[in-house]
Amino acid sequence: MSTTPDVTVVVAVYNTMPYLTECLNSLVGQTIGLGRLEVVAVNDGSTDDSGAELDRFAELYPGTVKVIHQENSGGPAAPSNRALEVATGRFVYFIGSDDYLGEEALERMVACADEHGSDVVIGKMVGTNGRYVRQAMYKKNDPDVSLYGSDLPFTLSNTKLFRRELVEQHKLRFPEDLPVGSDQPFTIEACVRAARISVLGDYTYYYAVKRGDASNITYRADHLARLRCTTRIMRHAAGLIEAGPRRDAVFKRHFTWELAKLVQDDFLPLDPGTQRELCTGIAELADDYLTDELRDSLDVKRRVRILLAQRGALTELLKAIADEAEHGAPPFLLDGGRAFAAYPGLRAPVVQLPDRAYELVGEAVPGRLANGTRLISAEWEQKGTALSLAVAVRIGVIGDTDSAVIRLARTAMPNSADKAAARRLPAGHQLPDPVGEFNRVLEPGGGGTILTARIPLPAVKVKGGVRVYVDVAGSTYEIPIRTRGLPMPLARRWGDTVPYRASANVNPKGRLVITTAPLWEPTPSFRARVRRLLPRFKRKVVR
Question: Which residues does 321 contact at the CB level (< 8 Å), separation at least 6?
């Protein structure tokens, strides 16, 4: 009988008590069984009780748990490399020492690799204690996924099952001089070299824990360290993947994630020298790797910030970040059927960025449109027996706003629109009938458009939401009007033959809703209730 374990689990450990105990328990409790399992834990100079806890498990599970103690190396790369030197399993799996596995995880992943001949198997990972883990990769089981045609570039941690023969054949190791992201070069190269990559989304394999003290190394790196690490990672990947769509597919992750995170709100308080150094580093990577196709695939917010950094337009970059932090997304400039986000630098000669840098390119923006839309005023207007609701609404759109109208819709917004409070209507949509009189004027300061309307209310029973419809970059968006605490006009009575009551209300989501109904309805059930009440009323009068 072979004594070679099926899988070696590598655990790099540094001061992770009490999380370490749960991690180790999840390993020795795996359904794959102790006989098929090897755990190699490397204590990287811990100063808490982690070393003692590792020794306790090694004593409890001799032959399965192997412990190596070494001086602190400053990161997880060196202990992981040390573990690879002694690993004997057919496969190797890496786990953070503050994380833990589902009890069937290893058995399921090894079975998948054996069935499909997979060199890399990715099991579904979820975050705990508020840790974010992107889920797009885990929608379904797929025995053969591509690094270039899937969400895999956004899942480049080493928390995967790797065929050890592949690791040793290509001498894959972790760069020990990267304080963060040292697993990315290893994972990228393994996926480039792999004959087959499989993903399993039918079970929770890995639980990624955010520590209560937020001390995971990812949360400790400063801006310049992150820039240096990202540069090394991208240079390494460029040496493996030739320029073209495949490289773009991988580098989309780095431009939208690592590099874009360098120019978020926390960029503002950095000293000017650090800000300029970050812009220079981003510019070098953009000059080398940001193709036109990759540029157009980025969302407009990230694209503008990266291109301003590339251009060295620090003043405009700082203003773009500060304005959005304080006021939200800028308005959209509509021009000739195209839409441009009016960030600083748009059509500014001093910046000299093309319009394409600011253009919406195949991007849905319901959240941005909704956040830029607010009710300014609402009041009743009655002429004779006709009642209208006069409203003024500010929308975050300027330029060609002839398509912007306010209408009364009688259907509820779909659940898919709840979070963004707006939605892009599907092709072939049918809008509510146009009603009312409209007027459009540019908001003072040019931050948006003021849209006014008088909406005549129908003398029928109706409950509907007041919404803006606007065409942006070839798509029509439906935006409910949020009142943002504005008091609504009091209910009104109107009508001729049949009196009606109208009210303007705010629903639980803060949206303006109009309700009209007859003051009474002469239905059979209504008449029956009246007849039952009349005798009682007459008896009371007689007494």
Answer: 263, 264, 265, 267, 268, 305
Instruction: Dump pLDDT digits (tens) for 266-320.
Output: 999 999 999 999 999 999 999 999 999 999 999 999 999 999 999 999 999 999 9
Among the listed residues 459, 453, 424, 429, the one whose alpha carbon sits nearest the alpha carbon of residue 512: 453
| CA atoms of 424 and 469, how far apart (whole Å) | 10
Q: Rounded distance, CA 124 to CA 520, Å?
A: 58
Q: Which residues contact 409 (CB under 8 A, 6 or more apart)?
A: 432, 464, 465, 467, 478
pTM: 0.85
Q: Which among 503, 495, 306, 333 has a CA at the least distance from the CA of 401?
A: 333
CA–CA separation, 250 and 235 (whole Å): 12
Distance in angstroms (rounded) separating the CA atoms of residues 98 and 216: 9
- Which tokens in the block code for residue 375? 């009710």
Task: Kindly state the DSSP code that residue 257 receives in the 8-state scheme.
Answer: I
Rounded CA-CA distance 465/67 in Å is: 65
User: Within a 10 A sphere around the Cβ of 384, how many other Cβ atoms?
Assistant: 7
Q: Is the peptide bond before 18 cis (omega within 30 degrees of 0)?
A: yes
Q: For the chain, how many helices (H) and strands (E)? A: 15, 25
CA 243/CA 234 separation, integer angstroms: 12
Question: Residue 198: exposed, middle, or buried by beta-carbon count in 10 A (0-12, 13-18, 19+)?
Answer: buried
